[in-house]
Amino acid sequence: MSVSLVGKICKQTVVWYPKIKSPLSFAQAFHLHVRSPSPVKSFASMTQQIHVSENFFFKQLFDRVSCTYSYLVADTESKEAIIIDPVIDLADRDAKIIDNLGLKLKYSVNTHMHADHITGTGVLKKLLPGSQSVISTASQALADKHVAHGDILEFGNHKMEVRATPGHTNGCVTYVCHEQGIAFTGDTLLIRGCGRTDFQEGNPERLYDSVYNQIFSLPDNFRLFPAHDYNGILDTTVWEEKKFNPRLTKSKEQFVEIMNNLNLAYPAQIDKALPANKVCGLYNLPPEMEEKYKSVLKP
Ligand SMILES: N[C@@H](CCC(=O)N[C@@H](CSS)C(=O)NCC(=O)O)C(=O)O
Ligand SMILES: [Fe+2]
Fold first, then answer.
1. Which of 68, 112, 116 for a ligand 1 pocket mutation test, highest count of atoms within 8 Å of Cβ?
2. What ipTM goes with this model?
3. What is the pLDDT of residues 190-209, one digit of tens each?
4. Domains of the chain by range and CATH?
5. What is the C-alpha to C-alpha distance for residues 149 and 155, in angstroms, rounded to an integer?
6. Residue ranges of the alpha helices (H) in 121-218?
7. Which of 172, 187, 269 to mutate to test the pocket of ligand 1 (most atoms within 8 A of CB)?
């Protein structure tokens, strides 16, 4: 099949792709032509940049202040949804997105007790009644539901496995959707990095073991979604991190040495984040958050 040159839009070379009767960027056309047996289906997947089941909904959300990624996943048939690591400042945004999509939030889950922002899980369960907040038992924080290694969170026909991945904090967990080939690693594994281990009972040896035993043991093509990225990268894969992570490609001894000498600045919001996160982001809130959510947080 031949494609013809249409012109340039926003500095991109655009070609006419006859099979789907549409102009595409050269990169898109290449992807369709070379990578996909069924162009239209693959084009849809390509725009989502993730290959998942047709009834699996996925949306990555971002908080510019703390560089936190939150993730909304749902079963588009039953409409049951889970949000992972929502930020309190944006809980109203997230509730609106969920509502506009016609989804029913089942769980607002934390990967761990965050030090750099206040969790949105407490406010979200008030904004979207019927949903429950979730955190690991090992985090020793308040929530409606506590999870531990091996537990499964179900939403519609989909499942998310809980894997304990301590090291950044005692209570860190990674959530794995096996059938979609994706995992949400929190701060345990960051893109070309990992969570710091210099506070909240951090422990570099435990973190190293968690990554090797619970994350690098997943298939190489699993996509990994962290709780933060400070460089504008959206996701990574098991293969990439096993091969290119500058900390975790080292021996455990070298890793510990690296982690003990990071000399990172104290997180800007830690003193207000931890007391609030111990109680699910429902109490001990700074005045501006009390004010913002006073109608939903009233006793
Ligand atoms: N500057 C940010 C905090 C940056 C930071 O410490 N990030 C954490 C994850 S949030 S607990 C981390 O583990 N970073 C590892 C690294 O190598 O950067 C702020 O002030 O909030
Ligand atoms: Fe963290």
1. 116
2. 0.99
3. 999 999 999 999 999 999 99
4. 4-45 (no CATH), 52-297 (3.60.15.10)
5. 18
6. 121-127, 204-210
7. 187
